């Protein structure tokens, strides 16, 4: 049965015992003066018992209050033993001190003061790996190596995105300001000019190139009809009666699936532009915010989702989640001034990564020279900050590579010299034929 210990109750009992001890002592003294001590001889030991009990109770009050403050559980003596006096105070205090010095196993999984979210996750990975068979003690090195590799990949990715953004802005700008005017002066076909603008003079959302490659690998025509092998198999069994219905429904079904994954081939705005013309944008080049404003009431999500497609929509959501994590990572470091003092390059890198992910999200939603330009700037800043943050690791790795190359080149030169000397001394050398 659980026993609740109230230090105030113990204190009241100890106070009452003290009062009782004092009053009994006075009564016994007066009885001896009146030669009536024999009448109360059975109470002579009570005052000393009360004094010892009071000392013990007040010691236990300290134990209970310490346990409440430290939230200590699991003492060998339970609460009822401490309250009932069945566990000696000295033994209980030694157990309490022993528990206080034991490490809290749950605390190792908690985030430490000034520990960033990324560092916390890395440490948790290491602790989880330590729990695997035969990997005890190897978790932290493995987790740190993976973290270093992830940083290396992010440097390459951010630098690549920055270079891609610069190339994209330059390509679109040159196409619209140089190539298209030149084509117009040469009175080239309007269709050619439109194709040039669509292919080289239009900003598209990040990921469009990979999506186009996937569309080439799996063209719409391939999913609008059954493969010959399936047709041949179906004609030889009972499913051949279902073939006409399946083949009849495949084109429309395939087109819906294709559009759902990759988005609509083009979107035509209901609202006219400033020149009173109807505007049509191709897949991947649409501004989802403009489409949301152009959509009819009650159909915004369906219209935007249909224009974007699953892949682009998933990219926007994933990028938005990354932004949320980046913001939490920066906020977890507390005061910006103190965070910069602790790790200046790392803090700048975290802020730059937040800016890069925000820019990428914006470019996925609304591709434009502004959003792509922001990707170029933030990507370069992030890659540079990461390089500075890991400069010691980079230089150490470079020195190791240079040392390895020097050692192996010297060894190879030595082996080559031995081979040349051996050939010179052998019969292969015509000078040794005579």
What does this structure look like?
This protein has 434 residues and is an all-alpha fold. It folds into three domains: 96 residues, no CATH class; 184 residues, no CATH class; 40 residues. Helices cover 71% and strands 3% of the residues. The chain has 17 helices and two strands. A two-stranded antiparallel sheet has the order 1-2.
Quick overview of this protein structure:
Helix content is 71%, strand content 3%.
Approximately how much beta-strand content do the residues carry? under 5%
The main sheet comes to:
2 strands, antiparallel
- Helix count? 17
Total of domains? 3
What oligomeric assembly is this protein in? single chain
The order of strands across the largest sheet is 1-2
Low-pLDDT runs: 71-84
User: What is the CA-CA span between the terminal residues?
Assistant: 110 Å
Secondary-structure blueprint:
Layout: H1 7-33, H2 46-70, H3 79-84, H4 89-101, H5 117-130, H6 139-185, H7 190-200, H8 208-217, H9 220-223, H10 228-235, H11 243-262, E1 266-272, E2 278-282, H12 288-294, H13 300-331, H14 336-342, H15 344-365, H16 369-389, H17 391-425
Antiparallel strand pairs: 1-2
Helix pairs in contact: 1-2, 2-4, 5-6, 6-7, 6-16, 11-13, 12-13, 13-15, 14-15, 15-16
